[in-house]
Amino acid sequence: MKALLELSNVGMKFDTPKGQFEALKDVNLKIESGEFVSLIGHSGCGKSTVLNIVAGLLQATDGGVILDKQEVTEPGPERAVVFQNHSLLPWLSAFENVELAVKQVFKKTKSKAEIRDWVEHNLELVHMAHAMHKKPDEISGGMKQRVGIARALAMQPQVLLMDEPFGALDALTRAHLQDSLMEIHAQLGTTVIMITHDVDEAVLLSDRIVMMTNGPSATIGEILDVKLPRPRDRLALADDPTFVRCRQQVLQFLYEKQRKVEPMPKRNSANTERVRKRA
Amino acid sequence: MVTLTFPTWMEPYRALATGKMSGEQWQALLRQLIWPVLGIAAFLLLWQLAAQRIDTSLGQFPGPSQVWEQAGSLLDEHQASRAKEAAFHERQEKYIASRLAQQPEWEPVYRSYTGAPTFFDQIGTSLITVMSGFLLASMIAIPLGIFIGLSSTAHAAMNPLIQLFKPVSPLAWLPLVTMVVSAVYVTDDPLVAKSFLTSMFTVSLCCLWPTLMNTAVGVTSVSQDLTNVSRVLRLNAMSHVRKIVLPSALPMMFTGLRLSLGIAWMVLIAAEMLAQNPGLGKFVWDEFQNGSSQSLGRIMVAVIVIGLIGFLLDRLMLMLQRALVWDKSSVQR
Per the CB < 8 Å rule, is B232 touching A89? Predict the structure, then answer.
């Protein structure tokens, strides 16, 4: 079977005042239609760079990305992005935010009534129908992210790109949104690439987990197939041997093989307590 | 059953009326009413005391009571002038009617009343002039600001010029504007007076900078995330500006507009004084030249009215900003 999305020898070099910095090197990945793939790795390893190259927001300096026989050269709605910090337009209501995207993508093919129905349908899909006329300021972080997902889904993308979509949310809200995302993925069969820091999240949601080595010159270290039947239930999985093994493998990769060595924060005196958050 | 809801600032008064004042409400009453009133009273007292000690060539410097008197007389003059004008029009109507009765083929000639503008007419002229100048400045500054904000090349090209012209005083522009207006605006049937145009252009030149700068900054600081959304949606340049850039920049733009209007009003008085545009500035100048014993009192009335109108214009912009801007936290007092 031919892959829907193919990254071949993708490399990325940035020019810095100190000379060239190679962020990514030889990233090769094939993704089938309907697959749910997670990218995991330590911060600064270039996960977001990979996603932005697929989105077309960045141009790879080496290699390239092919989606459905077409090379990716610019951003477009067929590769919709769910941004980490929701990126809703604060002056528009949830409905209007989704509507902006729908009008842009379907203005030639859908009538006014169809556009409205499609916007409402997508907001229902993420369980936001009850608050669709509220502004982003008036809804919680989790709800904003739901609207962000609705906006991306409403474009009917070939690939849904999610950049740490639940990173800024509390654990409970995150679990709710993960369940919603699994539900949507089962219902629509969308191809998804998601960046995450969260090992449990990666194992719970993905068909494959792509583990990245540390930069500079980061690349794909290992790829893990998660052979868990769907639909998946987070409670039942908690002591499922396959789940536990997958989780173990990802943790081993991250903390043994790719242990991130960060200098410890210096403490010059006993009374200055500095707690540095490790991202 | 009708329930009346009071705005929060009215709470202390309601409590006072019902005889139930809490300590906090006393505090609020002090802050809102009693301290400001005491402040004004102290100012009036100091003014009175100081005025008694200042002797000018036009007599003693006017204290609050003389100024109040002059305000009354300005109002009386205005009413008297209006009555005269009404009488003039009545006489004219009568004359035309009686002449038409004798000579039906006669083409009636209507003349307008040519009395001197009163203080209140001058306030009206000043408001019209300041608004025209402000609108003209906004019409130039907003599009230009968007352009400069979007293009770093344009920003680099224009920034030195903006920095150079921004601090220039209206008094420096005025002679140039006057000469240019006289040279360019040549017509036998002028729609508006040259002095009006001179004042208006001077106001525009001086007040367009805050709007220009703030619009440019607002446009430059559109969040990268929203720009990315626009790129993913493939919005064309026009929709990008309309749907993403303009709404993002609107709070900053309004801050600029408010500053601009404040400057416009300050500049206007100076411009009118020198351009002899029949507004408040000319009123002050004429009174100064007139040099009667009442002049200083009348100028002081103008000073207070100028302050009051400036304050009201600012409140007006604030209300507009509150109504139109999505980001309520950007609206300062």
Answer: no
Q: Is B134 within the bounds of a domain?
A: yes
- pTM higher than 0.90: no
| SS3 of B245-306 | HHHHHHHHHHHHHHHHHHHHHHHHHHHHHHHCCCCHHHHHHHHHHHCCCCHHHHHHHHHHHH
Please list every residue in chain A whose beta carbon sits closer than 8 Å to the beta carbon of residue B226: 87, 89
- In the prediction, which pLDDT does B258 show? 94
A75 touches chain B (CB under 8 A): yes
| Bond preceding residue A265 cis, omega within 30 of 0 | no
Q: Name the residue among A57, A91, A135 with its Cβ closest to that of B231.
A: A57
Q: Do B225 and A87 touch (CB under 8 A)?
A: yes
Considering only CB atoms, which chain A residues are within 8 Å of B232?
55, 57, 75-77, 79-81
Q: Collapsing DSSP states into helix, strand and coil, what is residue B319?
A: helix
Q: Summarize pLDDT for B262-309 with one digit per residue, the tens.
A: 999 999 998 998 888 889 999 999 999 988 888 899 999 999 999 999
* Segments forming the whole domain that contains residue A207: 1-71+193-256
Cβ–Cβ gap B234/A101 under 8 Å: no
Residue A226 forms part of a structural domain: yes
Q: What is the CATH number of the domain that holds A230?
A: 3.40.50.300
Residue numbers of the domain that contains B248 = 124-324
CA-based nearest residue in chain A for residue B250: A91
User: Which of A104, A153, A162 is the best mutation test for B, with the most CBs of B within 10 A?
Assistant: A104
Q: Within chain B, how many helices (H) and strands (E) appear?
A: 13, 2
Which of B232, B242, B248, B331 to mutate to test binding with chain A, by most A CBs within 10 Å of its CB?
A: B232
Provide the sign of the torsion angle of the four alpha carbons A63, A66, A71, A72, taken in this order: negative
Into how many domains does chain B fold?
Answer: 1
Per-residue confidence in pLDDT tens, chain A, 279 aa: 568 999 999 999 999 898 888 999 999 999 999 999 999 998 888 899 999 999 999 999 999 999 999 999 999 999 999 998 889 999 999 999 999 999 999 989 999 999 999 999 999 989 999 999 999 999 999 999 999 999 999 999 999 999 999 988 888 989 989 999 999 999 899 999 999 989 999 999 999 999 999 878 899 999 999 999 988 999 989 889 999 999 999 999 998 888 766 656 555 444 444 444 443
Q: Identify all chain A residues contacting B223, using CB atoms and an 8 Å cutoff.
A: 87
- Looking at chain A, list the stretches that DSSP marks H as alpha helix, in order from N- to C-terminal side: 47-55, 94-106, 112-125, 141-154, 171-188, 199-205, 234-237, 241-252
Of B226, B247, B326, the CB nearest to A87: B226
